[in-house]
Amino acid sequence: MEGLLSMLQPHPGLLVATFSLVFRGVHQLLRALPLPKGVCSDEFRTWKWRNLSVSLVHSMLTGPWAVICVLLSPEMLDNMHSSYTPLSYLLVCISTGYFVQDVGDIILTGHARGSWEFLLHHALVIWCFLYSLFTQHYVAGAVVALFVEVNSVFLHTRLLLKLAGAQSSQLYGLNRLLNLLTYVFFRLSAQAYLTWYIVRNYSWLDHAGYFLSTMMLMNIMILVYFYRLLRADFFPHGKGHLAHNGTQHGTSKKFLSD
Asked: Using one digit for the tens of pLDDT, what is the confidence trace for 68-106?
């Protein structure tokens, strides 16, 4: 596999386009699966369910993969600028392909306005990942950034359960706790380490100012969502809040909600 990847590595755009089509194929395959009763009756909820299902597949693949890459090559943590392996390079190609596919799905289905937070996040990620793939710099940084996908497994599961109206189930309760733990250990911690690395090595890193400003914007986004997550799942404002929240999910066209 390393030999094949070394042949394709000079053409990262081709790899990204290929994996974007692969995830589009995954999207089509998931359409064959049955939908929960409360989802199939609404066009927006149906699209959101299928979009989140593809996101869940991506997270289940790339989150553990990113952790394995670092466990096999821990030197990437000390040299995120130029240290990487063929396995980690392939991971970033696959993940970039997913984000490109997801942007296309959101825009082409007419849900860009209600999903602007996702589009902003994806645009920042795609630009940084493409820079890594074409320059072969910061590939390790992209791998560490993908640690967040471990949390995204539970984050996407949370949203799917809410779409299915399963907030009162034991599964939702267990997922709520796992989501909180992985949010702290894999999302907040990974972002903090990346930010610290850039600040510490700011004087010699390529385009350090751009990457630091990008990280700061991402940090603000994940902290805001962390607050919203805590407010919704651990500090709800009584039964009225829960009822309102459930109604909101049934009628709102906003993709990213509490």
From this structure: 999 999 999 999 999 999 999 999 999 999 999 999 999
Half-sphere exposure of 139 (CA within 13 A, CB side): 24
Separation of alpha carbons 216 and 25, rounded Å: 34
Helices (H), 167-252: 170-182, 189-200, 208-233, 238-251
Question: What local confidence, expressed as pLDDT, does residue 246 receive?
Answer: 45
pTM attached to this predicted model: 0.89
Asked if pLDDT for residue 113 goes beyond 90, the answer is no
Distance (Å, whole) CA 114 – CA 45: 13
Mean pLDDT throughout 184-189?
A: 97
Residue 17 belongs to a domain = no
Domain-located, residue 15? no
Closest to 245 in 3D by CA, of 235, 234, 258, 255: 258
- Residue that has been written with the tokens 């593809």 in this structure: 54
List Cα–Cα distances, 253 to 111, 163, 239, 247, in angstroms.
8, 13, 23, 12
Contact 89, 139 (CB under 8 A): yes
Q: Dig out the tokens for 222 from the structure.
A: 């994940």
Question: In the structure, what pLDDT confidence band is assigned to residue 185 with cuts at 50, 70 and 90?
Answer: very high
Q: Which domain holds residue 59?
A: 43-251
50 touches 131 (CB < 8 A)? no
Give the chain's domain count.
1
Planar angle of CA 156, 67, 63, nearest 5 degrees: 20
Examine residue 111 and state whether it is found in any structural domain, yes or no. Answer: yes
Query: How much is the pLDDT for 250?
Result: 42
Q: How far apart are CA 121 and CA 255, in angstroms?
A: 13
Q: Give me the pLDDT at residue 245, please.
A: 47
